[in-house]
Amino acid sequence: NKKDGWSTCTAGESPVNEPDTYLALRSGATGESMKILYSYEVNWVENDIPWADRWDVYLVGSPDDEIHYFAIVNSLMIVVFLTGAVATIMIRTLKKDIAGYNEMQTLEEAQEETGWKLVHGDVFRPPQSHPLLLSVLVGTGAQIGSAFFITLLASMLRMLNPIKKGQALTAVIILYVLCGGVGGYISSRLYKFCDAKSWKRCTIATAIAFPGLIVSMFMVLNVFLTIVGAATAVSFLTIILVFFLWACVSTPLVFVGSYFGYRADKVEVPTKTNQIARFVPEVPYYAAPPTSIFIAGLLPFGSVCIELFFIMSALWLHQLYYIMGFLMAVLLILVATCAQVSMVMCYLQLCVEDHRWWWKSFANTASAGFYLFLYSLWFLSSKLELVGVLPVVVYLTYMSMISIAFGLMCGTVGYLSCFWFTRKIYGAVKVD
């Protein structure tokens, strides 16, 4: 082939490196520029490896696998410790307490009872402060958790490619929209248990509260990105499409879920609620907020902190995160940790005759989101080298969104676990 007077390699020939024929980099006799021809050869080999698996040769057997195994073992040790604590409460302490309570025959004996049975007439008293907000938060957390679980499941089944990070983000958004029925159902069941009547307000709040907060944060950030002409700015058309996705799919599904939630029977509890609320004595520091909130949030965050480093590196350092099986295991360990921490803290609270467990059970484990945000600040200061104010604002905005979603999911697990725990232990006690 000839081009511009130069002869390139013909078919069946390859360039040969001959040091004796190398040209010195100098200009011609009249000072004109010297032309240098660069060439290369590509040999295409066809194989049957799918595109999604082409990186396996670099990823399988990575030295980081040992760290992932260590993270799993670290999380399992926390779960084993908490399981032992919960088993001690459920099998030994509660069994002994329930047997003692059920053997009380005389009124004098009943009047001398102490501990968590004393609040049996108030433990299922609906929360007196902001029951609608609590129902919306729990329903939103259930919707987020469902979307995240299904996304990981799809990744494990190779329906999503971990190399395409945008595909995973798109899947999370679409699955969150499709899980709107879960959020509507959970929030409506809890709101109905609180004997509240503003069911339309609860449903609308469940549909717009969390999406509205996230979109507001994103829109403010996107305005600044557009002004500076950043490549990460989202077009107006994309925003319109996301809005229609929320308005035409997510919101109707929330209303459908709420319809079935309000049509379902009210959640039954084993004890009757007294007309007058019981006086709550002074609560020890370890069972009262904010101490209980900060203590309880440490363990759920600690169970995922090692794996979190790899996730953050994949998000912000352009590294690859490909072992979704590990991430699914960590998610299950996180759920178990949140549930067990919440039940232990709830038991300690009931033992000091504090029956106001509704908001505390949510806040205790939701504080893991606060620790996640603190971790993101450490990651920013030690691992990232961002130049300028706007990149830092972008990072903090996105990590705030992730921390809020993480906290809502953990808080929901803690709340629902405490609800199950209290129904279980008071259902085993004979109450007049």
Can you walk through the features of this model?
The chain has 432 residues and is mainly α. It contains 14 helices and 2 strands; from the N terminus they run E-E-H-H-H-H-H-H-H-H-H-H-H-H-H-H. Strands 1-2 form a two-stranded antiparallel sheet. The longest helix has 39 residues, at 64-102. It is elongated and about 110 Å long. The model has no long low-confidence stretch (mean pLDDT 82).
Brief overview, please?
With 432 residues, the protein is mainly alpha-helical. 63% of the residues lie in helices and 1% in strands.
What is this structure's SSE topology?
Blueprint: E1 2-3, E2 6-7, H1 56-59, H2 64-102, H3 107-111, H4 131-156, H5 165-178, H6 180-193, H7 199-227, H8 236-263, H9 291-302, H10 305-316, H11 324-351, H12 358-366, H13 368-382, H14 389-427
Antiparallel strand pairs: 1-2
